[in-house]
Amino acid sequence: MMDPDALDRALFALPLEEPPADLRAAILTSTAFRPAPPFSVFEVAALGALTAVILWLVVLIAMGGGGLFLNTLSAIAATIQSALTNVALLAWLTAGAATAFWLSIFTGSQPFAAVAQRFGRRTSR
Amino acid sequence: MSVLAEAPRIERLRAGPEDGELVAMTLRGNPEAFAALVERYDRAVYHLAYRTLHDVEDARDATQEAFFKAFRSLRTFKPGAKFSTWIFAIAYHACCDRLNRRKRYSSEELPDRADASAGPEQQAISLDEAQRLRTAIDSLPEKYRTVITLYHLQGRQYEEIAKVLDLPMGTVKTHLFRAKEQLRRLLGGAEVTES
């Protein structure tokens, strides 16, 4: 029988299996160096919504609904106008914005700065 | 030369920043740090996968899957833990999944069963020492083979081997003792018996 120490020496001297040549590259491209998707989920959702609105407008106009389209636009404009002339609504919006700003000062959370930084990082890639 | 002086492979791989630091750097958004970890351990993980699965493609897939899972769950890695133990445990589980799948779809070798190939001693006669040892390791039952492979990769750190295999340390020591006994018999040309 083989000597125990000799077996240990033989075991530790045993070379590791040689992995396939492209294994490391395959691991890295599926993990740390995975190419960033061209669009984020949010961007895809925004793009989808925009496409749906454009499609809706095209169909509306093509079906002779120009008048209806103008009526819809004027209804939307009227709603916005009435909202912006509503003092109570404006007061709530101002209060909300001021609270968010105040919290960002005390908590250190800078959402706009974070968004700007993220955008800068993506463009620098 | 003392056996203890024979540095395990993992120790030799430890050049540069500590694994924990590389994990932290990866989490801070440095992909090169993860690349360094891959460079350190891909060969060892592949070795473990190949020794467990005996198939180049399966071993390759299991290695890739292990690193992918590790990368995805890097945040769950405990700072004080050993990265080698963690990645070996992930790889071992990936291998077990593959072995279980084989069990479902075929009658290939499964854990706790010895290789059916007869006469490793006969094959070993004309091979060199490393090949003889490999052949002998391959002929061990799966549970012993894995323990021997991890012993080879992690040195004498029984606790780490026990963590990877999720077995009590006593069981690991018993498996290792029996595995070595069988190896010694195989390499010495004696008859091997399943224990």
Report on this model:
The complex is a heterodimer of chains A (125) and B (195). By secondary structure, chain A is an all-alpha fold. Among the domains of chain A are: 40-85; 86-125, no CATH class. Chain A is built from 6 helices and no strands. Chain A has helices at 4-13, 23-30, 41-62, 66-84, 87-107, 111-124. The longest helix of chain A has 22 residues, at 41-62. Chain B has 195 residues and is mainly α. Chain B folds into 2 domains: 1-110, Orthogonal Bundle (Rna Polymerase Sigma Factor, Chain: A); 119-195, Winged helix-like DNA-binding domain superfamily/Winged helix DNA-binding domain (Arc Repressor Mutant, subunit A, Orthogonal Bundle). Chain B contains 10 helices and no strands. In chain B, helix 4 packs across helix 5 (83-105). The longest helix of chain B is centred in the N-terminal third of the chain and has 23 residues, at 31-53. Chain B is globular and about 55 Å long. The two termini of chain B are 32 Å apart. Chain A binds chain B through residues 1-5, 7-20, 23-24, 26-28, 30-33, and chain B through 1, 3, 6-9, 26, 31-32, 34-35, 38-39, 42-44, 46-47, 50-51, 56, 59-60, 63-64, 67-68, 71, 129-130, 133-134, 148, 151-152, 155, 180, 183-185, 187-188, 190.
